[in-house]
Design goal:
Elements (H helix, E strand, L loop, with lengths): L1 E4 L16 H9 L3 E5 L10 H6 L3 E3 L2 H5 L3 E3 L6 H4 L6 E4 L7 H10 L2 E4 L15 H15 L8 E5 L3 H12 L3 E5 L7 H4 L5 E4 L5 H5 L18 E4 L20 E4 L2 E4 L9 H20 L9 H4 L2 E2 L7
Parallel strand pairs: 1-2, 1-4, 2-3, 4-5, 5-6, 7-8, 7-9, 9-10, 10-12
Antiparallel strand pairs: 6-13, 11-12
Helix pairs in contact: 1-10, 6-7
Length: 317
């Protein structure tokens, strides 16, 4: 079984993470699998190609060679030109196919099946590949960085208090912000709570039916209630989502302004801390990748991995 690890080239070069680091590559090589790492895979994080070679990988600048291996491992979904290089193999990456059906269409043309990292969960429904708390932490730090006030002078309103909000709340409280958490029973009163807010944080995972019906908790007309130079920090990055004016951005162009309010909605907040998030992802996917590589057919995978398979032939658009 040959495994290709692709370099991330999205976001105009601002996405610098590597999904597997040399320590984990060594473990995979020791299990008897051939690993091919794209040249300069980790160089933007200070990891030389020689470290991957020492770990047992073949380092190649030939991208075609990477994308034609039995299993292709990436952090972000392949770009269209990368999908075109794939053929009859398995993709193991973040995919978010429900919101990006075009990926499934490209997989279908290449006869590719995927295991979506974000869908791999344990029996309690917890994601096994995630930097959720880091997303909130990095997003909150960025919001404070571009705010025109000291954090201790900011009124921060947070929608939801689940996993993705936890990191944001930790930073906001530790820096002395005035924090209000809006719970589900209070959503109907959002108009009241966001009045004079400096930063509004969305940490709600918005159900598909609400996205389809374009139901909003905060509408565009309500933005004027926030303080001048206010910030919307969307951590969930669902689209549409409970805030009408939110849409996903990338790390190379993370913000946009509507009605004087700066919006942050980065698809991949952990990329703001590339060394830390790469190390965590690499540790998390190692046992999963070894399990995937150990079977000859995806149908033989354990249930928790089977549930994460995206098969274009049966995918419901």
């Amino acid at each position: 079984m040959d495994i290709g690890i692709a370099k991330e080239v999205s976001a105009k070069g601002k996405e610098v993470r590597a999904i597997l680091l040399p320590r984990e590559v060594k473990r995979i090589s020791e299990e008897g699998y051939r690993v091919f790492a794209e040249k300069c895979l980790g160089v933007r994080m200070g990891i030389a190609d020689e470290e991957y070679r020492d770990a047992g990988a073949v380092v190649t600048r030939d991208r075609q060679k990477i994308f034609t291996k039995d299993i292709v491992v990436k952090l972000k979904p392949p770009l269209p030109e990368e999908f075109k290089m794939m053929r009859n193999n398995i993709l193991f990456s973040m995919l978010h196919a429900e919101q990006n059906p075009k990926f499934v269409e490209m997989m279908d043309r290449a006869n590719v099946k995927a295991i979506a990292m974000e869908l791999v969960v344990n029996r309690a429904g917890e994601r096994l590949v995630q930097c959720t708390d880091m997303s909130g932490e990095q997003g909150m730090l960025m919001a404070f960085h571009i705010a025109k006030k000291s954090p201790s002078d900011c009124k921060v309103v947070v929608l939801g208090y689940g996993a993705v909000s936890s990191g944001a709340l930790r930073i906001a409280y530790s820096l002395g912000a005035d924090v209000k958490i809006i719970r589900k029973k209070e959503y109907m009163h959002a108009k009241h709570f966001i009045r004079h807010a400096d930063i509004v944080v969305n940490g709600i995972s918005w159900p598909k039916e609400k996205r389809d019906n374009k139901e909003y908790i905060i509408t565009r007309g309500m933005l004027k209630l926030m303080n001048p130079f206010g910030i919307i920090l969307d951590l969930s990055v669902d689209f549409p989502n409970p805030i009408e004016t939110c849409h996903p951005t990338l790390i190379n162009k993370p913000t946009y302004v509507i009605d004087g309010i700066t919006h942050i909605s980065i698809f991949g907040y952990p990329g703001l801390a590339p060394i830390s998030s790469s190390a965590r992802y690499s540790r998390q996917i190692l046992p999963l990748l070894l399990k995937i590589a150990s079977v000859k057919k995806l149908s033989r995978l354990p249930h928790y991995l089977k549930k994460a398979i995206i098969d274009p032939e049966v995918f419901e658009f």
